[in-house]
């Protein structure tokens, strides 16, 4: 999969801040809900390809934000809920506010959990983190749906063999619900689009991050590399 390489890119970015749901949550729900909650990715097989231990990422390994941070010359942004109050006041290289089951509407998370960090709370936490003037901010739109659509239409060209089936097994022995605790997932994880029925595999995370970084057809009006260099 040489066409997916990011080794030729290196940017010096001061910080990265992340807002979202379980798609890029890297430990907030794990800190809030504990290690036995699937939405928090707090147990194996989640993290099986991330040093063999669960990190709070709802996938088998790294998430797209991790790859973007690496290209930006930064460490993976830490989950805000895993930081002490003192550390929250010293944030310099960014932080991850994403929380599984959250959404633009405050009631979204109530369908699954009461304690998730909804989007407005994530923004409030961000405002408490930084007092910088953001009037000159530049924004781009990443079309994640287009990335998935392209893969579904031509999976082989992206190195995928299965675009439909979850890699992990649920408590009923099927692949239609959240991953069961400590049951080994499929072995061909690198060729699967989905790790569980709702979240992409590390390979798919790598793909969308790579395309957002380099491809202005899915990240516009400029791609992330161009944004970082602007």
From TrEMBL:
Heme listed as a keyword: no
Top-level taxon of origin: Eukaryota
GO BP field: lipid catabolic process
GO molecular function: hydrolase activity
Keywords recorded for this protein, A-Z: Hydrolase, Lipid degradation, Lipid metabolism, Secreted, Signal
Gene3D superfamilies xref list: SGNH hydrolase
Cell location: Secreted
PANTHER family the record matches: GDSL ESTERASE_LIPASE 7-LIKE (PTHR45650:SF24), GDSL-LIKE LIPASE/ACYLHYDROLASE-RELATED (PTHR45650)
Family: Belongs to the 'GDSL' lipolytic enzyme family.
Protein name: Uncharacterized protein
Organism lineage string: Eukaryota, Viridiplantae, Streptophyta, Embryophyta, Tracheophyta
């Amino acid at each position: 999969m040489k066409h997916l390489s990011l080794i030729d890119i290196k940017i010096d970015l001061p910080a990265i801040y992340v807002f979202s749901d379980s798609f890029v949550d890297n430990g907030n729900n794990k800190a809030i809900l504990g290690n036995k909650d699937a939405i928090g990715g707090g147990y194996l097989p989640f993290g099986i390809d991330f040093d063999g231990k669960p990190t709070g990422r709802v996938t088998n390994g790294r998430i797209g934000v991790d790859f973007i941070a690496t290209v930006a010359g930064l460490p993976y942004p830490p989950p805000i809920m895993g930081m002490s109050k003192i550390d929250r006041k010293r944030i310099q290289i960014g932080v991850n506010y994403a929380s599984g089951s959250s959404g633009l509407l405050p009631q979204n998370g109530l369908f699954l959990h009461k304690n998730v960090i909804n989007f407005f709370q994530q923004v409030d936490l961000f405002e408490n983190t930084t007092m910088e003037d953001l009037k000159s901010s530049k924004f781009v739109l990443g079309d994640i749906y287009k990335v998935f659509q392209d893969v579904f239409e031509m999976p082989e060209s992206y190195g995928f063999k299965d675009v439909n089936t979850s890699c992990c097994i649920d408590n009923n022995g099927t692949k239609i619900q959240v991953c069961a605790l400590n049951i080994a997932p499929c072995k061909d994880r690198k060729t699967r689009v989905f790790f569980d029925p709702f979240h992409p595999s590390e390979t798919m995370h790598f793909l969308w991050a790579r395309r957002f970084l380099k491809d202005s057809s899915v990240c516009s009006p400029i791609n992330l590399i161009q944004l970082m260099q602007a």
